[in-house]
Design brief:
Blueprint lengths: L1 H16 L4 H67 L6 H22 L7 H28 L4 H40 L1 H29 L5 H62 L5 H9 L14 H26 L3 H8 L2 H32 L3 H28 L3
Helix pairs in contact: 2-3, 2-5, 2-6, 2-7, 2-11, 2-12, 3-4, 4-5, 5-7, 6-7, 7-8, 7-11, 7-12, 9-10, 9-11
Length: 425
């Protein structure tokens, strides 16, 4: 036991003794340079790898999950609106509305399946997906029953439609909203992971220590050997500078592009998605108010209360300000049309109100608005893809180049100091 305890002490004593002799100090400097250069290569590779993985995950998982969550959310809202519009026509629903309803449910189911593959099986997002998948079957069954009863002219069909809409709005859409919000949080976390702040801090420290060690070593050699320059160590210093500049350029570019992806892509996409969902809810309120045949009620009050939440301006929408001005005008056109529908219904002209609500004029007015929002969403998603792909450039190269440059630094440092050590033999 005594021998085991004294062995490390003896090794430390011999190591400390090296600093009292010239060759010993050179040996210590050589070990320091080799260790720091090796660490620099390792940390550069790991930092680049971490940034590359984080950026790829943001591009291939987090952002697509956000898009799929928005698709689930908006498709459920659109299906609810379309089912109500088809119902108020009475009898056999228009084929166009039936087709749109089926397409929106299919889109929601497809996006739900895709989203399920991107989230952990035991997380909040997975729970929301399971709840939506379970409730979707109940919703479609209620709507089918409401349709069948409506074709037979039975008023009870409206009650089934109301129950289906309540399930959609109070259960399915809140779960879809929870999925959307979780996807937003994961996208935010994805940006943090892609930036690799702790790895970059460690890399900066290691590279700074390596640069200082090279400077100290060359100053020491200049003073002790009376030689101004040591060419191999100068080469090692040059390679260190190259490594530092390469890291600065690549990581600065990556972080700048990540910021652009968030500002020009993720942020406006979230705002546009919320705006689109809000106008879909308004359209649903309009149709369901008519389906209830009770005049102005809770759903029309909901329509009026959420108008202020519809936004077509803001810093995050600067890049689509033109389309947003168009959308704002189209929204005013829709509000004017909605007011005409309400005036007819409130004035006792229910049939005329229904005809206007399901007319070509109404469909065109609303489709123009959602079409403009969809185009703006597609534009901002394309902007995100462009920025995030640009952010990943160079990271894979640095994963390999960093360790190779560090190896070359080790070689030149060893050559430069070994030549001086040979002089003491």
């Amino acid at each position: 036991m005594t021998a085991v305890q004294t062995a490390p002490r003896a090794a430390l004593s011999r190591l400390a003794g090296l600093r009292h002799t010239s060759p010993g100090r050179l040996q210590l400097l050589l070990v320091t340079l080799l260790v720091l250069a090796a660490l620099a290569g390792l940390v550069t590779g790991l930092t680049a790898r971490s940034a590359a993985v984080g950026t790829a995950d943001l591009r291939d998982r987090a952002q697509p999950l956000l898009a799929e969550a928005e698709t689930v959310y908006s498709s459920l809202a659109d299906a609810d609106t379309t089912a109500a519009q088809a119902f108020i026509t009475g009898g056999l629903e228009p084929p166009g509305l039936t087709r749109r309803y089926d397409e929106k449910l299919a889109a929601a189911a497809t996006a739900l399946t895709s989203a399920a593959r991107r989230v952990p099986a035991d997380g909040e997002a997975a729970e929301a997906i399971r709840s939506i998948a379970t409730g979707l079957g109940d919703y479609t069954a209620l709507v089918a029953t409401a349709r069948a009863l409506n074709r037979q002219g039975k008023p009870v069909g409206a009650a089934y439609l109301s129950t289906a809409s309540k399930l959609n709005r109070d259960t399915l859409q809140p779960q879809a909203q929870a999925l959307f919000q979780q996807a937003q949080r994961e996208a935010g976390g994805g940006y943090q992971d892609a930036r690799s702040d702790w790895w970059l801090l460690l890399l900066a420290i290691v590279l700074a220590l390596l640069a200082v060690a090279l400077i100290v070593t060359q100053i020491h050699l200049s003073r002790t050997t009376r030689r101004t320059f040591n060419v191999p160590l100068l080469a090692a210093s040059g390679l260190t500078l190259v490594l530092m500049l390469t890291c600065v350029v690549i990581f600065t570019h990556q972080r700048s592009r990540l910021t652009d992806a968030d500002r020009d892509g993720s942020a406006p996409v979230a705002t546009l998605a919320e705006t689109r969902l809000t106008v879909l809810r308004e359209r649903g309120d309009e149709a369901l108010t008519l389906a209830a045949r009770a005049g102005r009620g809770r759903l029309e009050d909901d329509f009026q209360s959420i108008k202020d939440r519809v936004t077509f301006s803001g810093p995050e929408l600067d890049d689509v300000s033109g389309p947003m001005r168009t959308a704002a005008g189209q929204y005013e056109d829709y509000l004017a049309l909605h007011q005409r529908i309400r005036d007819l219904d409130d004035g006792g002209k229910y049939e005329d109100a229904v005809k206007l609500a399901v007319s070509e004029e109404s469909a065109t007015t609303f489709d123009r608005l959602t079409g403009t929002l969809d185009a703006a969403l597609a534009d901002r998603r394309a902007a995100f893809d462009d920025r995030i792909r640009s952010a990943g450039r160079g990271l894979g190269l640095l994963t390999v180049l960093g360790p190779l440059l560090a190896l070359a630094i080790c070689v030149f440092a060893a050559i430069g100091l070994r030549a001086r050590l040979e002089e003491y033999r």
